[in-house]
Automatic annotation (TrEMBL):
Gene3D superfamilies: 3.30.160.250. This is Predicted nuclease of the RNAse H fold, HicB family. It comes from Methanohalophilus halophilus. It comes from the Archaea.
Amino acid sequence: MIESMLLEYIQTALARAKYDIIEDDEEPYYGEISELEGVWATGTSLEECRKNLEEIIGEWLILRLRRNLPIPPLGNFKNCDHR
């Protein structure tokens, strides 16, 4: 059940991602989720950037859970205080 909740949170976060193209960069695709502080990724293509962003969100969630830090509410996740 927890795994499915994490996957749903990641998908909700990805739906909120904003992407830009950075000219003259080795990995020109840049994506971030403004509601999740410090969550951003780059890639050589939009698909690679999205995949990298998905991995970063998962790692970010695990770190927040391990450190007992709050997880910002997104979509149906209104109360994410797991402490």
